[in-house]
Amino acid sequence: MIPLLHDFTGTRVLVFGGGRVGARRARTFDREADVVVVSPTFVEESFGSAARVRAAPEPAAVGDWIDRVDPAVIVAATDRTALNDAIATAGHDRGVLVNRADQAAGADRTVSDVAVPATVWSEPVVVGISTGGRSPALTRVLRERIEPHIEDAGEMARVTGSLRAALNDVSPEQRRSALRAVVRSDRVWKALGDSHTNTEQAVSEVIASELGETE
Ligand SMILES: C[C@@]1(CC(=O)O)c2cc3[nH]c(cc4nc(cc5[nH]c(cc(n2)[C@H]1CCC(=O)O)[C@@](C)(CC(=O)O)[C@@H]5CCC(=O)O)C(CC(=O)O)=C4CCC(=O)O)c(CCC(=O)O)c3CC(=O)O
Ligand SMILES: NC(=O)C1=CN([C@@H]2O[C@H](COP(=O)(O)OP(=O)(O)OC[C@H]3O[C@@H](n4cnc5c(N)ncnc54)[C@H](O)[C@@H]3O)[C@@H](O)[C@H]2O)C=CC1
To answer: Where does the record place the Siroheme synthase central domain (predicted)?
Structure first.
């Protein structure tokens, strides 16, 4: 499976199942989409700002729910395999993305079947981790290990994003080498993680030394 990034802003996501997994999926998609969770019961856990609808649709009624909500993604997170099967089929029939929580999608997987990776955010940087459905326990541990390495990446992205725009009076080669020097600089990374150090100054010095050397 190849990871791709989707922008779900302005879309709806329909989750079937109000257990721990349904709640987790609701929180995942709540960052961008309007989430509706349909379930006869809901765990005592945050569902973000998702709308909770108390209902227990039978397999035959799933299509109507999808047509009414018109979601970009459907999540099958109920504890009933036959129902999750019906949800997946109804989603495939309508060309909607389907995420099944109860199986790592087998041989009959289609391009509409999507897996949810573990994610580490340092906005706007995001890291997704998957074991191809083989070992969610490993996915979780890898996520925990990666987290501390990503903490300052969002700030680095912002700093170098502004630099790309600001370095408009040098050649493309110089701009590239300056940006590469900054993202590789231990000094700049250290400054990002330390509120007492002036990041801008560290960046300026790295650039000056880099451009000085290449001129
Ligand atoms: C295929 C997938 C569904 C999909 O596509 O969305 C899937 C499927 C299943 N998970 C199961 C079990 C567990 N899942 C977790 C945790 C997470 N599982 C997640 C994703 C995925 N899980 C997708 C593939 C991800 C990949 O490719 O690696 C994460 C990343 C995201 C999330 O769920 O929000 C989240 C980590 C969040 C984090 O902490 O970062 C733990 C660990 C724990 O809880 O400590 C356990 C228990 C330990 C174990 O079993 O390993 C079972 C068996 C259920 C049973 O036994 O009944 C199935 C079904 C099956 O495999 O058949
Ligand atoms: N992806 C993952 O990380 C994991 C996946 N799983 C799988 O996902 C499934 C869900 O896991 P949990 O949330 O822990 O289970 P759970 O048993 O806590 O939740 C299942 C939810 O489905 C609801 N439900 C029952 N009938 C329904 C209907 N007709 N319509 C809508 N909702 C209905 C129940 O009321 C309950 O809220 C499990 O059966 C398991 O196979 C389990 C653990 C982790």
So the answer is: 127-147
Ligand 1 pocket: which residues have CB below 6 Å? 21, 24, 99, 101-104, 115-118, 130-133, 135-137, 139-140, 143
Reported pTM: 0.92
- Taking a C-beta distance cutoff of 8 angstroms, is the pair 84, 78 a contact? yes
Any idea which architecture 12-116 has in CATH?
A: 3-Layer(aba) Sandwich (3.40)
Q: What is the pLDDT of residues 58-109, one digit of tens each?
A: 999 999 999 999 999 999 999 999 999 999 999 999 999 999 999 875 667 8
Beta carbons within 8 Å of 127's beta carbon, 6+ residues apart: 119, 120, 146, 150
Q: C-alpha distances in angstroms, 113 versus 2, 76, 173?
A: 12, 11, 42
- The two tokens of residue 71 are 């979601």
Ligand 2 pocket list (CB less than 6 A): 16-22, 38-41, 56-57, 77-80, 83, 101-102, 136
Instruction: Give the architecture-level CATH label for domain 117-150.
Output: 2-Layer Sandwich (3.30)
